[in-house]
Structure prediction request, 429 residues.
Amino acid sequence: MSSVNDLLTDVRLPLMARIRQNFPDVRLRDPVASLREQFLDPAVRTLVCPGMSIAITAGSRGIDVYVPLLCELIRLLKKAGAQPFIIPAMGSHGRASAEGQQAILSAYGITEETVGAPIRSSMEVVKVDTSCSGEPVWVDRCAWEADGIVLFNRIKPHTGFRGDYESGLVKMAAIGLGKQKGAETVHAGGPTQMGSRVKEFGVRAIQASNVLFGVATVEDFYDRICDIRLLTKKEILAEEPMLLEKAKTLMPSIPFKDLDVLIVDRIGKNISGPGMDPNITHTYLPGAPIPQVLRDQRARQVVVLDLTDETRGAAMGIGMADITTKRLFEKMDLEATYYNCITSGAWHSGKIPMMFDNDRLAIQAAVHLSAGNKGDHLRMVRIQDTLHLGEIWVSQALLTEAVSSPRIQMIEDLQPYSFDADGNLREWQ
Prediction:
């Protein structure tokens, strides 16, 4: 690559300033106490009887206060005389294997020792119903054979479709509990049918199985829990759409349009299903039923530099970038990535973009390809990932626009990029 690298040597990078977006502080101060209080409400507490075996779903997304909430839920169920256990509910993630899915939970700190309950990881499913088109509705066998199921998930806008139920408890029932077979079945209708199929298969799975209640969380602009609800089986279907609407109002964003270059330090399944949330980056999959006005907000060049450790090599979403690094490519677990791509039908998501030896060359290539070297007029943003947008880096061309907003505060003045001896950006501080 030396000759290619020589082409980029003289590409000048703009100075960058670090800014803070001051979002409203609406976090829930003690979500564990709120869960405890709601569990003791007779509408929920009376659903649990002594001796019941109860399966609690745990997904592949990072949830704020995840382990403490699971610990408290398990403690409350045990105090009521029940025998709770955890089941991984994450479709085809973890190479669609029982061991791989348990390993994902372990990476979040969810183990039998930390939460005080066994983890029963299996890819076996049971057909519990049939859709209106004659397709099977699948549910994890361990959950199906338990006396009760507790659905636990975060409510937020989906990354590729719009509907009454997007990412949340109903999707957890349709795809998470359905394991690889359920995920593949729901995705089989393609992106334009995802909204209706998640609703149908999820509702049927909930109604056909022994769901007792759900634990739904909503997170604020800073990825912190601002609401937690314990919803009975009937309440899940009635109230999840309202929680989804609330979640939509709390989504952070990149406060600039018409970007030349967007740099994303890291992507991963713990950040978003497609690695980076396209509601923020506008890197939507082809065919997803998303308005063109949103697609047009995509930066001319999107650079992804690395994978999170928690994603364990699964690089869904890398195909929606234009440029990446050799470091990221070498971390990719192609089997885990392709398993997810094939199950979801999102084959574009696993394509390999142009890669360069280090961060500096990757960014220089993006600057060169975005529309020529614009120098100080280049509109560039750097983010850590799509969950953390409180602090971001912006180029000089965006600075006047940034500081004119009452919501934005500059915390580090314009400065050159800081690369280490290998040409990689220094870690986000």
Notes: The mean pLDDT is 93.
